[in-house]
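the two lines:
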Amino acid sequence: MHYDLIIIGMGLSGLMAAKTAAEAGRKVLIVGKGMGCLTLFSNTIDVLGKIPETTRLRDGLSQWIQDHPEHPYSKVGLTRIEEGLSSFTSLFYPPYIFQTIGDGNCFIPTGAGTMRPTYLIPDTMVAGASGKEKKGLIVGFKGFRDFYAGYVAGPLNWRGIALPLPETPGQEISATALSRWMEKESFRKTIGQEIKKNLSGETCVGVPAILGINDPIKVKMDLEEKIGVGVFEIPTLPPSIPGMRIFNRFKEWLIRRGVNFLSGYSISKASLKGKRCEGVYIHHPPVSSFYSADRLILATGRFIGGGLVAGRERISDPIFNLPVRQPGSQEEWFGKSFFDEHPIHRMGILTDSSLRPIDETGEPILENVRVAGTILSGHHCVNEKSREGIEIATGYWAAKKAMEQ
Amino acid sequence: MNLKTEVLIIGGGATGAGIARDLSLRRIPSLLIEKGDFLSGASGRNHGLLHSGGRYVVSDPEAARECIAENRILRKIAPHCIEETEGLFVSLPEDGLDFRDRFIQACEETTLPARLLSRDETLSLEPGLNPDLLSAVKVPDGAIDPFELVLANVKDAEAHGARCLLHTEITSLLVDGDRVKTVLAKDLLHGEEYLIEAAYIINATGAWADQLLKLAGLRTAMALSKGSMLITNQRLTHRVVNRCRPPSDGDIIVPNHTVSILGTTSIPLEDAENFEVTHREVSLLIRETSKMLPAIEETRFIRAYAGIRPLFQSGEKGDDRAISRGFVLIDHEKRDGIRNLITITGGKLVTYRLMAEKTSDLLCRKMGIDVSCTTHLNTLPGAEKPSGLKDRLKPLGKVEALCDCELVRREEVEEVLREGKLKDLQDILHRTRLAKGTCQGGFCVYRLLGMLNELGLTEGNPNKILKGFLEERWKGIRPVLWESAVKEEELIEGIYKGIFNL
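prediction for all of em together
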């Protein structure tokens, strides 16, 4: 089994790399232990939430690139970041599309009643975006532990209600269960009637992000018809249903394009020869099989994804054992306050501008391997609100550069 | 507001609660004032060991005798707070057997039931122990839940007429001639001020004893010592495991509910309010305890915490009614000419009842009344229902679990809320197992705040409370973040700083 490109990791960066290579007609294998962090954190596409509210994203990014030469964005460059983002949005077709509000960040309400900056949002969140001046009713569901309408509504000065659920046939009331129920017309009818009864002058209704997995626009439009006002989704605790939709869309597209999509498998070993990686052993319990490739992309994420492993005193990459830039001992990994920018989050794999892993002297370690996504060093994606932007831009760029080779 | 009481007890740790109960059973009215919640000091920050006395038999036989006697009493009056685990004193090759032999002899002299076990016998009881061990001595150590114990004392005291005010701090003690005449206090959450008239005052503030006495212009010669501990995310042994050598850092592993607690260190401290567990202490505790139980090297930890031991300079004891080297009871009439003030401090959780008894005896003598202590004869509320996992393991069915780590049901929290008098988040966390599991409240505290909001019990912006909690939680987990704990932390940060943008 020989491939033009093997991508290790099924998060957003790996998926973007696979899409980019498949579009160029290459033979691609993408392999991952799970769905990456898409289903944990990604509800919308953050690119750089940290810039001032009124700044155009383009201006903010180009300033950021100037100020942060070690940042993944600086390696990719503004034009390619924008190409990557267009490639991402082109995957989604109406009515479920990702869009911007204006040319900068927009603000969306969250499950904690805060407003958070983000860049691309799915159609199901548009009615709630930058909506401080609106008058909204927040609707939660009794027994759903990951969203509390009053909690969300309070700080926003909106009103919140918790509706009893019509049917919970012995199941846990989770985001996934609610999403599945929402796809049923009878469920929507009961919920819609209840919401309508509770409206008192509000011009929009916010619900947790559970408006169905497969056809959220149909769910949203049907609910809106039943209620009579706009409905929008609010991101809350994981799992992220909008993230699941992104994953499913990529998966469907990649498989249709002939990409070998190996989900649920891990790498047991990489086969290295000099400065090249010849392929990887993938563990199909109880045996491992060898998959060879001309080039590879490492997109295994950080600690949750398994891309980085923290020992008692040292952080490492378990697949290629690439050098991880790190400050001192465990004592220095974290700041004194939870809300500090912890030094550990800047640690990651060092690369050159074409995303090849390098050693401390700047020499490429593996000529035919590229690194993409949050495993890269030099960013602080949670504080910067740049997670998905980094994943999309570096996944896109790593695949482009790999194919030039 | 003016308050009147016969006896004012200051401090809501095990000692203060024990005194409130003791006095209430002697039909002496009391008011207990505590600046935080019950167990905010050392009573809530120890390793939950029901001492057999073994730790002290060699160095301090008198303290050991107290432990042996109190251990027996607590098993009778508070069976629901105790798990009878037994304890082992393990000798490793580097320890030799000299101390062990002295230990066994001292056990005989103090009538502490002890049995020498061979290496093989020991390993058959606790297969995870270091296979190179030489032998172990089995003693009746156990695990005790300080929260249940203290709250049961409070419940009994209140049932017999005692009153308690939490989150209330003493702001001044006004001395007039030979007595403290009035006491001023302030509710720290609502700002209300109290003027308290009490015939007698008992200072049971532990590490804060000196600070309180300063308000009356008095001093004690006291030093503070920090003891740090680590909590593992699973229970590693069934028995308490001690190192059979003179008391030292990192010499004990105590099973506690579903986890184990590794202890302790001893570091001199200046400030009773601001302290943290250092990287050096964490490394030392892991290095030392893993010599007894090698699996500790690979174990995940969920929290590090520290408590403060109040230590008394030896000069203090001769002057006063020092009952033992374990605790100090000061009659300020004898020492300072203040007739109505008593200080009780030092000691151990296991001797809290004895400390309360001796304090109450002294008080009765001063009051000129003759009523005997009955706290060793009457069981504590809840004793009729023995402790055990069985209750917590009953099927959850169609109920809402706020906490998945420790399976805390929403109803359980609602019941705690109904019992009332809870003033802040920590009060609720103290009375349930919320935030005590692997995620340390990373999920359930948000849910708890959401639930309180639904019940109309929150005011203002709950995110302020949430952020405060996350900072408090951080202090405990920051020292033990590596391996899988880092993954969990990445998740928690991704939620609160990322999705919620707090």
